[in-house]
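Fold these two proteins, one after the other.
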Amino acid sequence: MQISTIIQQSCNDLVVAGITDSPKLDVELLLAHAINKTRTYLFTWPEKTISSDEFKKFQILFSQRLVGKPIAYILASKEFWGLNFNVNQHTLIPRPDTEILVEETLQKAKNRQGWPPHIEILDLGTGSGAIICALKHELPQANATAVDFQAEALAIAKQNALNLQLNIQFKQSDWLSVFNTEKFHIIVSNPPYIEETDPHLQQGDV
């Protein structure tokens, strides 16, 4: 089947299902992943046909999207701050608007006078580690620490830091309970703010 035909038919299916505001983008991301190509390839060669194995792989991915599973969880990956992060059901999906928190934090760190170069930064409820990794990426001299209550989330965050070659200390903790006399120049947090029963969770990458 031709790439253009797959995209058109799949977009129609998503529109009927009513679970996304970006059906074409969703289909392109899944199809590009299934055939191990970029979206640019899809734009350039819409008349190309894909193999039956590639189409089966796409169908498996697409069937998950049809029932509302977010793209990031299907692909187990999400870009944030220009960096690629592994994600799964144990972590929230990094969202573009969370980059505002990173921007504001970097601005405050830049404007502070008298702070040592090795400032101490703590991320509470780190999840995938997106925020602390972005901050450490921009402030390589900082001492970065992140905590999360869930061991499964910490495992993902640690792997992301390793993949990005960032030296970050991770601790399992219920917020600040693991700390005694430690002090931090900056504490950031972006905890869950959407109820688990919120229907928007089934409509996209929330």
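Now the second one:
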Amino acid sequence: KCKYAFSALLLCFSISTITECAHTVPEYLSDDEITPKEVEFHSVDYKNVLHWKLLKPLQGRPVYFVQYKIYGQKKWANAVHCLGITEPHCDLSQETSDRRECYYARVQTALDDTLSPWVISPRFVPQWETSLSAPVIKLTARESAILVQFKAPRSPYRRRNGSWISMKRLHQLTYRLYVMKDNMIQAKHVLGRPVRKILIVNLKPKTTYCVQAEAKIQLHNRTSKRSKKACVITL
């Protein structure tokens, strides 16, 4: 029964991007139990993933259907890779790739031949709501100095040749460095302009130093978490 009911649901969604499949809830389920909760986007480096959850685990195996639209549009579009999925999340990075646009998404639960109401996410604007992951740093020992090289986070977008687009191509990124010795911060360096590397000088020779970095999107005044600690012994 479940197999054929599920096939019918997929057919319902494939007929039209705006088809409204019937919403029915049997007596043994409450409307609240099957309805998705906390439907919202989580975004890091423009990887825009819609998340939701159910009030409690259900008997059987619920599946989910996801649709999205741009603010102002009347019709909803199917997220074709998220029709009949079993995990409570859907990556909509490509569907929401215009960083300045306003988007909505909605989710519906199906269990056997039962459908929940649609639940709509809050309005989502990628450029204002994405967070920035920590940069990667590489240290090279120099005489009484350390060369620090930065690698910016990667976005989910690709160039025509298939290579990934870095976040530094989408935003002006600056960095803040923390230089530590014996687990104590010795110096902070705030880099007010985009750079790929910096030489930290006037350090003690043959001494272990550790460095962490934060990246910042200047336009939005948004700062990443600190990078993993990297350590090196000066020459």
